Hints:
- By secondary structure, this protein is an alpha/beta fold.
- The protein has helices at about 5-20, 55, 80-85, 100-115, 140-145, 175-185, 200-210, 220-225, 230-235, 240-245; strands at about 70, 90-95, 130-135, 150-155, 185-195, 215, 250-260.
- The chain has a seven-stranded mixed beta sheet with strand order 3-2-1-4-5-7-6, sandwiched between helices.
- Strand 4, helix 6 and strand 5 (about 185-195) form a beta-alpha-beta unit.
- The N and C termini lie far apart (about 85 Å).
Amino acid sequence: MPKRKRAGDASAAAAEAHKQQQNDKRHYRQRAHANPFSDHALVYPAAPAQFDWEAHYPAFAGSGKTPEFADVGCGFGGLLIALAPLFPDTLMLGMEIRVQVSQYVHDRIVALRSTNPPEPGSTTPGPYQNVSIVRANSMKFMPNYFPKHSLSALFFLFPDPHFKARKHKARIISPTLLAEYAYILRPGGIVYTITDVRDLHDWMRTHLEQFPLFEPVSEQQLRDEGKGPIVDAVYTSTEEGKKVERNKGDKWLACFRRIEVTRD
């Protein structure tokens, strides 16, 4: 006769099954892209100082910390989840405009935090306490979240290529937006871009090269500076990056450093 499961075991199994169901992408169906020029029902702070970061990073409450890494259009959160254990003291924020996708990342983070508690007696935050997400339109509201020179890394991984010429104005890299990125990125900070579309790669690289506050930095330079784990995550951690690998496609990486211009 098989052993009967105890009520506690059954409850734990049910909770785990529910958690797995919550983190199954099938339950978060969403279109691949969203129109950044549409009116979305978004709640955003009037200024960075008005945003409650402690609600997103409760384990860091009272520390005064704000995000240093921002993943723009973070998708299903692959980069954030990959980098969080590597930089446990660095706060990271994903920004995603799609409702279901941002909800998926939120639920994923909640599940990871609950299943990876801190060590007993530990005074440091537990795993994944340093990562969070907001549903936001990055093309409109980036300065509402980040103070001047507050970020050390800004990621644009496999963004929407907007192939048609009349749609190029919706690309996430443009002269106007680069001015905002330069404002929130501290001198020495890095912009990471990667795509499997050569035309989009050339577009992003050319616009960044032409902007006076950014200079190109090679992959080898970044690795020599100890940023190899970040570069590796940029290549391999996202859903889109894994899809490109499965299809044996090319990935085009371009990275740029925020420079400081001294005024005479």
